[in-house]
Amino acid sequence: MNSANSAIDDMDRALVHALQLAPRASWELLGPVLGARPDTLARRWERLTGTGEAWLTGIGLRTGVRPPCMAWVEVTCAPGTSPPVGDALVADPYTLGVEHTTGGRDLLVFVALPDLPALYRYLSSRVQLIPGVIGTRTSMVTAVHYAPDRWRLDQLAPDQIDLLTGRTRRSAHATVPATAPVAPLQYEDRPLVRALASDARRSVASLAREFEMSESTVRRRLTRLEAGQSLRYSCALASGLSGWPVSATLWAEAAEYELADCAAAAAGLRETRTCMSVSGPWNFMISVRLRTVEDLSRYTADLTRRLPGLRMRDSAVSLRVRKSEAQELGPRGHRLRTVVPDIWSDPDPAPSGPVGL
Q1: Which of 19, 22, 218, 289 could anchor a disulfide with 168, C-beta 3.0 to 4.6 Å?
Q2: For residue 61, what pLDDT band results from cuts at 50, 70 and 90?
């Protein structure tokens, strides 16, 4: 859908912002905060998700009690082959993000696999065998300082945010311990997490019917995974409609003892979507959302002004984001479909013949 023809309005943006703060809050709880009837909010959300203008996904980034092996893979392609290479990577359940970018790589891909040996097999037997791929460079994620699900729209007023967060804290107080330990994502939890990848607002009743569990069992599992940080939710609005249509990635270098300060400074800037410590040529990576391409230089200047010891080494603007948080996206950033992630199984070798073509 062309954004010029979209019927999206400020109430829709406020609804998305509210669901970023309280992803599974009931419409009855959200209604007084947004000043709308619960059934009106439900209809709006059904329209937004039906057109791919907005979505809410659940991601389980844990193998047992440990995070998976995550990495950024820069892919270089033969001339004219980056679109079909991108097609193959978008369809892959091990990729959570795929972008066509400027700079010294054709594609920037975020992957998650069970462990280092699985990552090696995945790169050598799948990615590097895709027709058109002529080179890869991999940077391991060693720490996630600021995750993408923490980025917010700026539609709600401060008093609405306070009211919403206060309501959700009170509603969760009876079931979630104040300091919940890390919850293992167990084998039997995986189907439940996969089911939330395309629609994290699925009702407990529908999940219970699908997996032949009691509603209390489903509710208990979700509460444990949410409180133990093994299941996180991400609500997004199509980039062309959000007011922040430009995505960019920066690579920087800093002394290891300064990385926590770097992360705190980056997290304090409105545009920061995620920042991570990585291995490779440089040890710090930031992804940002911008209103215009020209804002990239201002953002970089703001960051280096706050951190004179941070040395910016490279940057790339996304020409097109093909996949984000396991969602395949269209040219205007609308969701086309969900590619359900499978970060727990060992990747099979590439099938014989062209991959993804």
Answers
A1: 22
A2: confident
Q: Which residues pair with 74 in a beta bridge?
A: 108, 137
Q: Is the dihedral of CA 20, 156, 238, 271 positive or negative?
A: negative
Answer whether 128's CB lies under 8 Å from 137's CB: no
- pLDDT by residue (tens digit) across 324-345? 999 999 999 999 999 999 889 8
Kindly provide the residue ranges of all beta strands, DSSP E only, lying in 204-310, ordered along the sequence: 232-237, 246-253, 272-278, 284-290
Q: What is the H or E stretch that residue 137 is in?
A: strand 133-146
Closest by CA to 55, choosing from 327, 293, 301, 254, is 327
Cα–Cα distance measured from residue 231 to residue 219, given in angstroms and rounded to the nearest whole number = 13
* DSSP codes of every residue in 70-95: EEEEEEEE-TT-HHHHHHHHHT-TTE
Is residue 240 within 8 Å of residue 3, measured between CB atoms? yes
Residues 139-182: pLDDT tens digits? 999 999 999 888 999 999 999 999 998 877 666 544 555 456 78
Contact 107, 89 (CB under 8 A): yes
Q: How far apart are CA 331 and CA 242, in angstroms?
A: 14
3-state secondary structure of 206: helix
Q: What is the dihedral of CA 325, 126, 188, 145, to 10 degrees?
A: -40
Report d(CA 69, CA 343) in Å as an integer. 9
H/E segment holding residue 194 = helix 190-195
Q: Is the pTM of this model over 0.85?
A: yes
Place of tokens 């193998």: 63
Torsion angle, alpha carbons of 132, 95, 112, 182, to 10 = 170
Give the integer Cα–Cα distance in Å for 279 and 251.
11
Mean pLDDT for the stretch of residues 289-317:
95
The tokens of 111 are what?
Answer: 């992957």
76-126: per-residue pLDDT in tens? 999 999 999 999 999 999 999 999 999 999 999 999 999 999 999 999 999
DSSP state of 315: E
**φ and ψ at residue 235, rounded to 5 degrees:** -105, 130
| Alpha carbons 37 and 40: distance in angstroms, whole number | 5
